[in-house]
Every structure is written in structure tokens, then in C-alpha cells.
Design a protein that fits this description.
- This protein is α/β, with parallel strands linked by helices.
- It has 2 domains: 127 residues, Aspartate Aminotransferase, domain 1, CATH 3.90.1150; 242 residues, Type I PLP-dependent aspartate aminotransferase-like (Major domain) (Aspartate Aminotransferase, domain 2, 3-Layer(aba) Sandwich).
- The chain is built from 14 helices and 14 strands.
- The strands form 4 sheets. Strands 2-10-9-8-5-3-4 form a 7-stranded mixed sheet, with helices on both faces. It has a 3-stranded antiparallel sheet with strand order 11-14-13, with no helix packed on it.
- A hairpin with a 4-residue loop joins strand 6 and strand 7.
- It is globular and about 60 Å long.
- The two termini are 42 Å apart.
- The chain binds pyridoxal-5'-phosphate.
- Pyridoxal-5'-phosphate (PLP) binds next to helix 3.
Amino acid sequence: MSEDTKPLPSPHFGEPYLLTPGPLTTSYEVKQAMLRDWGSWDDDFRAMTREMRSRLLALIGSNSSAYDCIPIQGSGSYCVEAMLGTFVPKDGKVLVLSNGAYGLRAAQTMEYLGRAFTLIDKGDYLPPRGDEVAKALADDPAITHVLCIHCETSSGILNPVEEIAEATHAAGRKLLIDSMSAFGAVELDAGELDYVAMVSSANKCIEGVPGFGFVIAKTDELTAAKGNCHSLSLDVHAQWATMEKTGQWRFTPPTHVVAAFIEALKTHEVEGGVEGRGARYTRNRDVMVAGMRELGFETLLADRWLSPIIVTFFCPSDPKFDFSQFYDLMKDRGFIIYPGKLTVVDSFRVGCIGRMDEYVMRRVVEAARQALNDLGVSSAAPPAAALEERKKLAA
Ligand SMILES: *Cc1c(COP(=O)(O)O)cnc(C)c1O
């Protein structure tokens, strides 16, 4: 075993690994960073907020000097709502690209905001493509913004953001990205994609604990967004203006979560940044998917669409397979898996993100083998209907 493939230390206190897309398994150091109290007004905490914002900004690749980073209290959905409410003008219109739960949630958010939107709904997992976006934009000149989900966590698909960005800019419209579950592990170069804003949160690929999200947005768009937001607490411009002026968050910040997150960002840097983090997750996925396929499991998605974030598997057709029993048997062996979100066939998901490596993933596969054995399931092959469903994607 070479030095750089040494297993990661077990990060926890005997609790199971979370094979879920956040909250996820965090390192001991991240947890330990929370054993102190900070005054939100104090210089020490202001310095932490500054450091966090500049570390995040350094992760967007080229053209980062045209952007700024603004943290917002709450979970990731608060940030999506903050981004939409702040950057979409009251008389604007959003083309929401949906292929799963998070796309639909963004559309629902637009409904709550009472701002115009139109939806391309591709169902459970089929990716929205550049040519469809181009057509929708050509057909509807009122559309001002396109909202794209980077990794649609409900199926695990990595959506084709590059071609979506290209179609959006070719039509002279603006791009917003929900990169919640991908940012920090999958490149999202601001210079190339030229997005107005993107959002992610503390408890996904940076491997912090839950409590806030962040918006990374163009500073000229931030300036122009003054007074546009429907909500006081979700106004990204107002949060930004206060932070620039005083170094403080407008309302009580999640101090301990920020401290943990800075620790997580330091680890992210040591690991090699976005590239290093992405490489470990990719290896996690490859080892886990290969092992599961050996057991007879099949993935919903063909390899080219699989993200290094989370993978959807079809449930086996064997009538002895029962997901809730399988879940409990996996949990007994130290692994929390995730139910599926497909509407047509039964499925479950296994996350690849968090403080774990390929050695852990091999144990996940072994646990699945034993769990199938306990259930008396001899083959994990999915029903024919599942494979029929999958053919739609190949086209
Ligand atoms: C996690 C996630 C969100 C935010 O979900 P919360 O439960 O509010 O944190 C939004 N979009 C995507 C794609 C996500 O993976």
C-alpha cells in the first residue's frame, strides 16, 4: 500500500458511515473545531468569515475576481430561494430545467416567489440538453434566466452544464446554477460557464456540517440586484452589503458551523482542491459501482452520466428483497444508505461523498453481499421493467 493510498482514519465514534448526500460523514477535526464558542461581533469571527469567503472564491477557477461569495444562514434550499429572489428581476422569467426533485423544488420556489417561470420537465432523470434549451429560449423571448441543476442528487446524474451554458449565452440569457451537491468536487469554472450566480452548502462536497449555504455571484449583478429581493432574510445583496461594510453577518451566524467549515476547507486544500476531492469521490464511486455490479446490481444511469456524488441502483427483482430490511442490515454493518426517488421502479442510492475512501467502499460492497445473503436473495438483478426504463437514456 503506497503512502498516498493509505486508508483515511475512521472519523467517528462508532456511529455508521453516512452514504448520503449530506449531512455526510465528517472528519474528527471538523467535529473538534466546534468545541469552542465565538462571539459573532468579535474580530476573531469576522476574520473567520473573511477567510471562508476568500477560500470559497478561490475554488471557482478563472475569472474569480469578478465574483464574490456570500454565505446565507439555513439549509441549501434557503440559498436557492435567496439566489432566485435576489437575481431574477420582478418582471423577469426563469426557464427551470428539471430532471428530478431539486429541479421541481426550484420551480416550486418560483411559484412561492410569484415570479414568472417555465419548466422543461424531463421526469426522473433524463438530462436537459443544449438543443432543447436553445429551442425553449428561441420560442419564448420573455425568458431572462435559465436555472440548471448541476448534479441532480435525486438520481445522481451529472447534468450537461457546459452545453446548457452555451445555449443560454448564445441566446443572450443569463445562467443560474444549483451546484449544491457537486461544488468542491466537480469543476465549475466561472470564466468558462459565465454564470450570474451559483449556490452550494456547507454539508456537501466540502464536508462540513449543516447550517448554512453560500451564493457565489458576479459583483456587478450583486450591485444591480439591490432592492430586488422579496425577503429580508434571504436578500443576498443586503447580506453582501453588510458583510462588505462591517465584516458581519446580518443576523445570528452559525458560528460553530463556520468554524467547522473552515477546518473542512483546509482539508479540502490539502487534498488537492476540487481536483483532489473529485478524484477521491470518483475512486469511491468506481470501486463501489464495480463491486455492486459484481453482485448483480444495475445502475439506473449509463457510465457517462454517473456523477462521483451519488449512484442510483435498481432494487433486485427477487421477491425476497425488501428495501427496509436491506437498509437495516446495512445499518447493522455500519452503513446508512438512502432510499431511491424514481417514480417508475424501485431503487435505492449510495452516496460517494464524505470522509471516506475506497477501503470503506469495499466494505460497503461486502456489507451489501452479506445483507443479500441474510435476505436469501441469490441474484441482485433488477426486473425487466427497470432495464426497459433505462433504455430511454441510451437514445
Ligand atoms: C442538497 C441539495 C439541495 C438543498 O437541499 P437542503 O435539504 O435544503 O439542504 C438543493 N439542490 C441540490 C441539487 C441538492 O443536492
